[in-house]
Write a sequence for this structure.
């Protein structure tokens, strides 16, 4: 391949009330506010040296503008444009200066219809890893991954692995042997981008890495103390998939975020994916607790990078939208 995608690096969320979002993300969860305007808030984790990993953008309705990947050098963007053009995927250039703190970026609608962006240059700021006096709320360290609902998981898996150079750490197979979900990575963790069978394209959640499992418990206490207990959707618990500790929250606009810690190293190229059966009760939660129906049914709408309109959604190819098991 003529390009090198490093990792998932940021997401842009449209939100309806910046003040309410500020209360949730900054005052409660402890994200670092790099900068803000009347229409945007730029957030990062304590470990991150780049300007932001999450953009909250004022809009009339909640949605997702882009899921962004960092590449090794600026020439990688041209190589990616050539690939997408060859595959019949229309691209859009975002010139340097058109996005705050960013160099030029390339956007396209991926094979599933998700709005993805690739960039190399972003302003750098102070890394606050050892500013323990600023560790508040969840003590968020960095962005870790995204998870998306798509109609055809096999199609998404094949495109990202064969064309973009992702590797698969774990997957889920249904009773007919069909690929129901997959966890793909570029960095040496379990995933940068997961895909699950569902109505889509939609963003299911953004995952942020916390310093330790106790930070998840502390987050629940802080949420309850500040009146955000209702935002806890699922957890805390431990995934079977990835082995990580998790806590799923819904922000004031319904966007889902996962607070996450404790997966494993995936750098060995000779190690294939770990396979799970969809109805294995330890798959989604190692301790056996079921996820609520809303966790499978609800997700954030995504926008067309060319028109700015909400992308048309399709029903999934696999009829089974959630696991079935008895605890």
């Amino acid at each position: 391949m003529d390009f090198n995608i490093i990792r998932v690096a940021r997401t842009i969320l449209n939100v309806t009330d910046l003040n309410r979002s500020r209360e949730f993300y900054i005052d409660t969860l402890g994200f670092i506010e790099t900068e803000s305007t009347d229409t945007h808030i730029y957030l990062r984790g304590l470990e991150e040296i780049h300007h932001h990993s999450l953009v909250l953008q004022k809009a009339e309705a909640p949605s997702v503008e882009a899921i962004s990947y960092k590449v090794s050098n600026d020439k990688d963007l041209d190589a990616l444009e050539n690939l997408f053009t060859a595959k019949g995927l229309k691209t859009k250039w975002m010139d340097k200066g058109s996005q705050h703190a960013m160099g030029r970026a390339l956007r396209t609608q991926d094979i599933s219809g998700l709005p993805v962006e690739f960039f190399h240059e972003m302003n750098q700021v102070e890394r606050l890893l050892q500013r323990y006096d600023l560790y508040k709320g969840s003590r968020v360290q960095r962005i870790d991954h995204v998870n998306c609902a798509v109609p055809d998981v096999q199609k998404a898996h094949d495109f990202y692995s064969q064309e973009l150079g992702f590797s698969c750490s774990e997957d889920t197979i249904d009773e007919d042997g069909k690929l129901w979900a997959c966890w793909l990575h570029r960095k040496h963790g379990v995933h940068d981008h997961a895909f699950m069978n569902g109505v889509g394209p939609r963003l299911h959640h953004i995952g942020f890495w916390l310093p330790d499992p106790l930070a998840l418990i502390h987050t629940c206490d802080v949420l309850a103390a500040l009146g955000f207990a209702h935002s806890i959707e699922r957890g805390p618990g431990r995934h079977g998939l990835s082995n990580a500790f998790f806590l799923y929250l819904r922000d004031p606009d319904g966007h889902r975020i996962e607070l996450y810690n404790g997966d494993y190293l995936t750098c060995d190229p000779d190690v294939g994916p770990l396979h799970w059966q969809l109805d294995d009760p330890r798959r989604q939660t190692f301790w056996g607790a079921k996820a609520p129906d809303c966790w499978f049914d609800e997700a954030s709408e995504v926008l067309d990078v060319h028109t700015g309109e909400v992308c048309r959604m399709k029903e999934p190819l696999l009829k089974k939208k959630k696991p079935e098991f008895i605890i």
Summary: The mean pLDDT is 96. Helices lie at 18-28, 75-86, 153-162, 213-225, 281-284, 293-297.
